[in-house]
What does this fold into?
Amino acid sequence: MGLEFLLGVGVVTALNTVLALLLVLAERFLADYGPCTLALNGEKKITVAGGRDLLATLKDQGVFIPSACGGRGSCGLCKVTVLNGGAPLATELPWLKPDEIARHIRLACQVRVKHDLSLQLPPQWLEIRQYRTTVSSLRDLTHDIKEVRLRLVDPPEIEFKAGQFIQFEVPPYERSDETVYRAYSIASPPSAKNEIELEIRYVPNGICTTYVHRHLRLGDPVTINGPYGDFTLRPGEREIIAIAGGSGMAPLKSILLDMAEKEIARRIRYFFGARALRDLFLLEEMKTLEQRIPGFEFIPALSKPDPMDAWNGETGLVTDVAARYLPDASEAEAYLCGSSFLIQAAIKMLTSKGMPRERIYFDDFG
Ligand SMILES: Cc1cc2nc3c(=O)[nH]c(=O)nc-3n(C[C@H](O)[C@H](O)[C@H](O)COP(=O)(O)OP(=O)(O)OC[C@H]3O[C@@H](n4cnc5c(N)ncnc54)[C@H](O)[C@@H]3O)c2cc1C
Ligand code: FES
It folds into this structure.
């Protein structure tokens, strides 16, 4: 009896699995949704071929949605309001808060265009453009961080706010048989409109960073789109606490250069975390900025200095070092940039020092 029952369950499960597989294959290879209309903000209407995801479909139409994972459903940045898009998929739920679901927000990379859709996008997204650039300089900042300068070709200038990021297009190459996009913060100031600087840290086996570190050459063409993001300086007089690690330096460098150019004088303490001396970079630039911005102090901290480093600066995790400097952070505001681990640790530390959560701004690089 028990064996028969188990066999029955096994057969039903196997049949269900085969059926689900057939449905997925039919959806992929047979479904033809024909032309669909996308209505943007109740005004602009575009006709597209149905069948692909909304993120890629819009990109082909020159409408760019923020994304850092290139459509893999792992960054949660591509949120759009799809008024008639139905319920979110299981893959979207980790990224959507209950109030966002109630407001019909979906992840554009997870929505398949199968019928006419009515979309609400922030108007500034319609200004986002694609740019053709060429590599004008490549420089090693550390053993695993490269500075990449891109000269704008078409259009020849880009407008952005200090702290924003672009998406870098990686063409198919030996590690990837399709075009992929990754997010990189702009490290140069907005005044430099015809050339932007990126700081890209090598991630072992990473598609984009392997391309940049091992294949990209001077003069190569690179397509980017942007700018994106709201990791920008809020106006006001409050003291600024900045905490970053590794390539998290990039947007803060842009913000600091912009402040220096605009002669914005605010008290800023910038805690920068690195493992050992070989992971520190831009020390001279930071010293120069200390001269240019009254109230700016750069505090590098090494978590595991090498005995050969002869380091006599701060040691320990950068968040622990910052905690030692900050008995009370209730009146300040914070800008954090780097790995998720650093961001979470910094938020915990700053709120424990009295900083309200809504005054903590961050870019989480993952
Ligand atoms: C808003 C934003 C701005 C960013 N700005 C910068 C920047 O200025 N400079 C910069 O270097 N990076 C930045 N990043 C990270 C960047 O977008 C990529 O995620 C990173 O460069 C890895 O891309 P990849 O294609 O090489 O790796 P992938 O092929 O995407 O990943 C390969 C493997 O590495 C893991 N992985 C992915 N990212 C990381 C990471 N950062 N650290 C450790 N493991 C990882 C993945 O889980 C995967 O297993 C930013 C991210 C965001 C969201
Ligand atoms: S593009 Fe990253 S989750 Fe959609």
